[in-house]
UniProtKB/TrEMBL annotation, chain A:
<protein>
    <recommendedName>
        <fullName>Exosome complex component RRP41 homolog</fullName>
    </recommendedName>
</protein>
<feature type="domain" description="Exoribonuclease phosphorolytic">
    <location>
        <begin position="19"/>
        <end position="150"/>
    </location>
</feature>
<dbReference type="InterPro" id="IPR027408">
    <property type="entry name" value="PNPase/RNase_PH_dom_sf"/>
</dbReference>
<dbReference type="Pfam" id="PF01138">
    <property type="entry name" value="RNase_PH"/>
</dbReference>
<dbReference type="GO" id="GO:0034475">
    <property type="term" value="P:U4 snRNA 3'-end processing"/>
</dbReference>
<dbReference type="GO" id="GO:0000176">
    <property type="term" value="C:nuclear exosome (RNase complex)"/>
</dbReference>
<dbReference type="InterPro" id="IPR015847">
    <property type="entry name" value="ExoRNase_PH_dom2"/>
</dbReference>
<dbReference type="GO" id="GO:0071051">
    <property type="term" value="P:poly(A)-dependent snoRNA 3'-end processing"/>
</dbReference>
<dbReference type="InterPro" id="IPR050080">
    <property type="entry name" value="RNase_PH"/>
</dbReference>
From TrEMBL, chain B:
<dbReference type="InterPro" id="IPR015847">
    <property type="entry name" value="ExoRNase_PH_dom2"/>
</dbReference>
<dbReference type="GO" id="GO:0000467">
    <property type="term" value="P:exonucleolytic trimming to generate mature 3'-end of 5.8S rRNA from tricistronic rRNA transcript (SSU-rRNA, 5.8S rRNA, LSU-rRNA)"/>
</dbReference>
<dbReference type="InterPro" id="IPR001247">
    <property type="entry name" value="ExoRNase_PH_dom1"/>
</dbReference>
<dbReference type="GO" id="GO:0000176">
    <property type="term" value="C:nuclear exosome (RNase complex)"/>
</dbReference>
<dbReference type="GO" id="GO:0071035">
    <property type="term" value="P:nuclear polyadenylation-dependent rRNA catabolic process"/>
</dbReference>
<dbReference type="GO" id="GO:0000177">
    <property type="term" value="C:cytoplasmic exosome (RNase complex)"/>
</dbReference>
<dbReference type="InterPro" id="IPR050590">
    <property type="entry name" value="Exosome_comp_Rrp42_subfam"/>
</dbReference>
<dbReference type="InterPro" id="IPR020568">
    <property type="entry name" value="Ribosomal_Su5_D2-typ_SF"/>
</dbReference>
<feature type="domain" description="Exoribonuclease phosphorolytic">
    <location>
        <begin position="200"/>
        <end position="263"/>
    </location>
</feature>
Length: 242, 284
């Protein structure tokens, strides 16, 4: 199967190699959560909800009394994949992604401002079409901003791959399943720091640098979009306040 | 969620006794309902229903499978419900399993009929492709995204809308000469069959608070309930299932009153839901 048309340079879904899927972000989708967001990257749809900062429920989990405890749970709906799959809660992949999201968000949240408290991030995947953990991180960032949690910077995440001798930005499910390398980057755009980096399959170092740079460019584009969404939301709140 | 104080509890019960609830509704009045179809493009049918601050997503997925030995001329339908932790932190981890199972069994009782398949909301014979060999397996999934009371009614409404949004691919069968071989099936990409959802019921839950009962209880009102009766009614006024929840006992005559009130209230609810469904499908 050809993932990049050699004549036209288009991908299977009609994108160019460095083109992102269509983004859509919406805040305030869960009424009773302190902060919530819906984020779509193409056909990947994710809902994130934030509860907190609130009192620590389980004292045993509190590492120290100087920082807030950040907890995260990642959940996939049974219907979210093309083939229906019933997974037990807390399977290995969900646990790993929960930990990844928690570490990525911890790097951004100013935990020292909220000692002895707990921030819960819940991420629910409604539809998966590749780039799921990147979409989860973007949704969690929007939800945290909606909840008013103080953060150093906006964390965004994007994946990139390498197929048919071409670096590709923002893989979809078909490209992800092709067996090529998949690089996922979490990025603090203003601080210019990487908070998440994952790669599977084989990749030479010089190609890896190219692919990683492409993913970072994707993160910056997503950060611009998220900033627009938050500005629009702030303007709407300002109008409501009168 | 912070607990209610004694004054708040008294206020809620007093308001219900005087037919004026905290959000201004009367006892037998639903919150505004909004419907959206086609929210999960990968599924055969999907719907999102918002009932006040309660929001649920229902999807229908169809797969080819083998019919049950007990009923070789009928397809199979399964219902699953999951409560997302985004709805409430108490659903985190395995916290939602008990509640999800309760909702799931209540929905199965109302929609799937008995063991014989009689009284099922969907004509199971229409799901047969080859008798005894190939049939459609329908998987109905409900997901609670935001929870503010009355989840059972919202889930049943979402499943009804999702079923009317469902398109099942048409299957062409070429039978081989030998009867015991697996038939060759060709799933069409163009032609789709749709369900007749006129018999699919909605669920109306009547929650008893003090000496009165209300429909479409919010979370605060549900916390004050002594018991609740959920009645599954279809468009023709037939009752397809009953479930009682809550610890307190109910007088039998009160139950009969509740059933007749549920039948009456469901008429308007079904017409509102149908018009919202048509509007959503037109907007899709």
């Amino acid at each position: 199967m050809e993932y990049v048309n050699p004549l036209t340079g288009f991908r299977v879904d009609g994108r160019r190699p460095n083109e992102m899927r269509q983004l859509k972000g919406e805040v305030g989708v869960v009424a009773r959560a302190d902060g919530s967001a819906l984020f779509e990257m193409g056909n990947t749809r994710v809902i994130a909800a934030v509860y907190g900062p609130r009192e620590v429920q389980n004292k045993g989990q509190q590492v120290n009394s100087k920082d807030a405890l950040v907890r995260c749970e990642y959940r996939m709906a049974d219907f979210s994949t093309g083939d229906r799959r019933r997974k037990p809660k807390g399977d290995r992949r969900s646990t790993e992604i929960s930990l990844v999201i928690r570490q990525t968000m911890e790097a951004s949240i100013l935990t020292h401002l909220m000692p002895r408290s707990q921030i819960d991030i819940f991420v629910q995947v409604l539809q998966a079409d590749g780039g799921t953990r990147a979409a989860c991180i973007n949704a969690a960032t929007l939800a945290l901003a909606d909840a008013g949690i103080p953060m150093r910077d906006i964390v965004t995440s994007c994946s990139a791959g390498y197929l048919c001798s071409t670096p590709l930005l923002d893989l979809n499910y078909i490209e992800d399943s092709a067996g090529g390398p998949d690089v996922t980057v979490g990025f603090l755009t203003k601080m210019d720091k990487v908070t998440l980096l994952q790669m599977d399959a084989k990749l030479p170092m010089d190609t890896f640098e190219t692919v990683m740079d492409l993913a970072i460019e994707g993160c910056k584009a997503i950060a611009n979009y998220i900033r627009e969404v938050l500005l629009e939301n702030t303007r709407r709140l300002e109008c409501q306040r009168g | 969620m912070v607990g209610l104080s004694e004054g708040e509890k008294h206020f809620i019960r007093g308001g219900i006794a005087q037919d004026l609830r905290t959000d201004g509704r009367r006892r037998l009045q639903f919150r505004a309902i909004s419907v959206e179809t086609g929210v999960i493009p990968q599924a055969n049918g999907s719907a999102r229903v918002r009932l006040g601050a309660t929001e649920v997503i229902a999807t229908v997925k169809a797969e080819l499978g083998k019919p049950s030995i007990l009923h070789p001329d009928k397809g199979k339908v399964s219902i699953f419900v999951d409560c997302s932790p985004t709805a409430a932190p108490m659903f985190e981890g395995r916290g939602s399993e008990e509640f999800s199972a309760e909702l799931c069994v209540a929905l199965q009782r109302c929609l799937l009929g008995g063991k014989s398949g009689a009284g099922a909301a969907i004509d199971l014979s229409s799901l047969i492709v080859v008798d005894g060999k190939v049939c459609w397996d329908l998987y109905i999934d409900g997901l609670v995204v935001s929870s503010d009371g009355n989840l059972l009614d919202a889930l049943a409404a979402a499943i009804k809308v999702a079923l009317s949004d469902t398109g099942i691919p048409k299957v062409n069968v070429s039978l081989s000469a030998t009867t015991d071989e697996e038939p060759e099936v060709n799933v069409s990409d163009e032609e789709f069959l749709q369900f007749d959802t006129s018999s699919v019921p909605v669920i109306v839950t009547l929650t008893k608070v003090g000496k009165h009962y209300i429909v479409d209880a919010t979370s605060e009102e549900e916390s004050q309930m002594s018991s609740a009766v959920s009645v599954s009614v279809n468009r023709h006024g037939q009752i397809r299932g009953l479930t009682k929840r809550g610890g307190a006992g109910l007088d039998p005559s009160v139950i009969f009153d509740m059933i007749s009130v549920a039948k009456h209230v469901s008429r308007q609810f079904i017409s509102v839901l149908d018009s919202e469904t048509l509007a959503a499908e037109a907007a899709e």
